[in-house]
Sequence to fold (230 residues):
Amino acid sequence: DQQVKQNSPSLSVQEGRISILNCDYTNSMFDYFLWYKKYPAEGPTFLISISSIKDKNEDGRFTVFLNKSAKHLSLHIVPSQPGDSAVYFCAASLAPNFGNEKLTFGTGTRLTIIP
Amino acid sequence: GAGVSQSPSNKVTEKGKDVELRCDPISGHTALYWYRQSLGQGLEFLIYFQGNSAPDKSGLPSDRFSAERTGGSVSTLTIQRTQQEDSAVYLCASSLDARGYEKLFFGSGTQLSVL
Fold:
């Protein structure tokens, strides 16, 4: 039972344009959402997060949007750069008494930025 | 280095053999996690440690899998009588604490191939 779903295994975007990566979840008890980025032969690295009390969080070129009613979140990267080419994982954590120990990850989306 | 270190980076073994995977977390991180990523799958939670205790072992796929952590530092994941379905990338991560939403810092993983 995949509680966190990333339905697009891959995405290609022109350099300078906006990249939008999507994530859907099924468990309404999820309270905190994160995006991790992974380069080949490296471990995932934390990118950005959002609490369920917010609907948007921005950090430089990266913005995460949360739509709780739709159980959907998205990561926007603008402008996209070649170094953004990586696999992006969406992750979710349960509320209210759990944290990292209950992170559930999606299957990842491979983003390719075309120069 | 200052990051999470995993060894070996690659392991090829024959079906039925035992393997040990090692993780050195970031110094001072009390929480340590093991995940695995099988081909085409998301990151699957296996077990986490808070200090030397493992409050949640629910992700271990079978009793062939075990893990320990000593001195609040190094952890070893042991797989006995390996099977071909155990082939995956095994990722270790650490964080300051398991509770809350401290960032997870991942190692580069061990690619396990069971022939």
In short: The CA atoms of residues 65 and 79 of chain B lie 5 Å apart.
